Amino acid sequence: MKKSNLFIYGIVLLAVLIVSCHNGRNKLVNSWKITAVEAKMPLSDSAKSAILDNGMLTFTKDGHVTGYLQREITDGTYALTKGGKSLVIKDETGTPYPCESTITDDKLILDSKEMKITLDKI
To answer: Are strands 115-121 and 56-59 parallel, antiparallel or unpaired?
Structure first.
């Protein structure tokens, strides 16, 4: 009897984890425009302006991302883990950009060691 209860609890826990990760991904799938950049390391005014002027990311359901972060991403991928609190974007060369993420219905905040970026849903 104890093994069956443990098995049921395991199934319920797995379902909760899948739903929580899926909901974070659903909120992320969209296009986002960079509206604020807070540099944590030296960043030239021209680089900051380029990020603000061109900065946009589009996330798809199948795990792909395109747009402009610190440079153009034409065929990148992303992985959202820890219930939507950790996002790793990889550009087409495989260079990872790990960050802590906060996702709401209309805002996305990406906090990395280099900078904190705020994006608004388009």
So the answer is: unpaired
User: What does pLDDT average to in each consecutive run of 10 residues of the chain (122 residues)?
Assistant: 54 43 76 97 94 96 95 95 94 94 96 97 96
Task: Tell me if residue 77 falls in helix, strand or coil.
Answer: strand
Instruction: Report d(CA 63, CA 65) in Å as an integer.
Output: 7
Distances 43 to 30, 38, 39, 46, 86 between C-alpha atoms, Å: 28, 9, 6, 8, 24
Contact status, residue 122 vs residue 32, Cβ threshold 8 Å: yes
Instruction: State the sign of the Cα–Cα–Cα–Cα dihedral 61, 108, 53, 50.
Output: negative
Amino acid identity for residue 23 in this structure: N
Report residue 41 as tokens: 């390391």
Select from 76, 68, 64 the least CA-distant residue to 52: 68
Give the separation between CA 96 and CA 104, rounded to whole angstroms: 23
How many residues are recorded in the chain? 122
Q: Residue 15's pLDDT is what?
A: 43
Residues in a beta bridge with 72:
68
